[in-house]
Amino acid sequence: MMRASFPATARLHCPSEYASALKGRRLARGALFVVMTPRDTGTEGMNASSPRLGMIIAKRFAPHAVTRNAIKRVLREAFRHKRHMLPGRDLVFRLHVRVEPSSLCELKRRVRAEADALLARAAQ
C-alpha cells in the first residue's frame, strides 16, 4: 500500500509558480473552486515527477480565518489521498465565490465533495 504523504515538494512555494498556473489553462470548475494548471507543464523539473498543490483562498471570499484554514486543510487532505493518481503537473485551487455562512462541518463536507470531484477530473 502506498503511503499518502504531503511533503514540501508536493506544494507550490514561489509566487512565480502560482503566476504560471494562473496564466495557464483551466482544468475544471466547480461551485466553489476553479482548478488551473500551467500550459507548459513539461518545462519545470519538479512538474514532470509528481503533482504539486497550490491554493488561493482569498479573504474577500472567506472573511473568517477559521473558514479559510478549514478549506485549506480539507483541500490538502483530499490532494494527499489522490496524489498518486494525478499526473505530474501543478494544480492551483482558487476559491471563486463567497462562502455563505454555514456550519463548519457542512462547509468541510461541501469542500471535500467538490475537491474529490475536481481532482478526479484533473486525473483524466
TrEMBL record:
Entry GO CC: ribonuclease P complex
Signal peptide, first to last residue: none
Catalytic activity: Endonucleolytic cleavage of RNA, removing 5'-extranucleotides from tRNA precursor
Highest taxon in the source lineage: Bacteria
Residue runs in coiled coils: none
NCBIfam families from the UniProt entry: rnpA
Subunit structure, interactors included: Consists of a catalytic RNA component (M1 or rnpB) and a protein subunit.
Free-text function comment from the UniProt entry: RNaseP catalyzes the removal of the 5'-leader sequence from pre-tRNA to produce the mature 5'-terminus. It can also cleave other RNA substrates such as 4.5S RNA. The protein component plays an auxiliary but essential role in vivo by binding to the 5'-leader sequence and broadening the substrate specificity of the ribozyme.
Identification of the protein by name: Ribonuclease P protein component
Organism: Allopusillimonas soli
